[in-house]
Amino acid sequence: MVVEQLGISIAQVVTALTSFEPLPHRLQTVSHAHTFTWIDDTLATIPEATIAALEALGHVDVLLLGGYDRGISYQKIVDAVVEKKVGAIAFFKPSGQTMYDLLRERYPEERWPQMRVIETMEDAVRFAYEHAPRGGVVLLSPSSPSFGQFKNYEDKSAQFRHWI
């Protein structure tokens, strides 16, 4: 094993893994309120980062996407949420509107998740409460920067926690 070649014991590896704390705003579990697991991945400001989060988590019931639109392609994240069968998506404008429109244009209605373009973080969290199943996972992983509706990613994250 590699760890043995590095002179690290299995006990040290287990200790390190069980005491690991993720960086703030990067797949950070912030609450287990009302039987849901609420995960903050606010620093996922490109589609590839959100796709990596979806891969890491395996299953997401409600995804909060969107924010400032830099004019990049959002096709990868649209394809990923359909492929991963995310159950519900709340979209923050303006990039969220672009993603919402792409999903509706590219996929037939029977493949659409529950979707809503929302105005505020309060609306997004209420949407999550409406659509997450008992024991479900709610992920804030926007694929876009937070500017516009929010001062920055810290403001977006703080509002997420507040409204949970």
Quick structural overview:
The protein is an alpha/beta fold and 164 residues long. It has helices at 2-5, 10-18, 47-57, 75-83, 95-106, 121-131, 153-163; strands at residues 28-31, 37-40, 62-66, 88-92, 114-118, 137-140. A six-stranded mixed sheet has the order 1-2-6-3-4-5, with helices on both faces.
Question: Overview of this structure, please?
Answer:
By secondary structure, the chain is an alpha/beta fold. It contains 7 helices and 6 strands, in the order H-H-E-E-H-E-H-E-H-E-H-E-H. The protein has a 6-stranded mixed sheet, sandwiched between helices. Helix 4 (about 75-85) packs across helix 5 (about 95-105). The longest helix is centred in the middle third of the chain and has 12 residues, at about 95-105. The model has no long low-confidence stretch (mean pLDDT about 95).
| Series of secondary-structure elements, N-terminal to C-terminal | HHEEHEHEHEHEH
Radius of gyration: 17 Å
The fraction of residues assigned to DSSP E strands is 15-25%
Order of the strands making up the biggest sheet: 1-2-6-3-4-5
Question: Quick one: biggest sheet?
Answer: 6 strands, mixed
Write the layout of secondary structure elements.
Layout: H1 2-5, H2 10-18, E1 28-31, E2 37-40, H3 47-57, E3 62-66, H4 75-83, E4 88-92, H5 95-106, E5 114-118, H6 121-131, E6 137-140, H7 153-163
Parallel strand pairs: 2-6, 3-4, 3-6, 4-5
Antiparallel strand pairs: 1-2
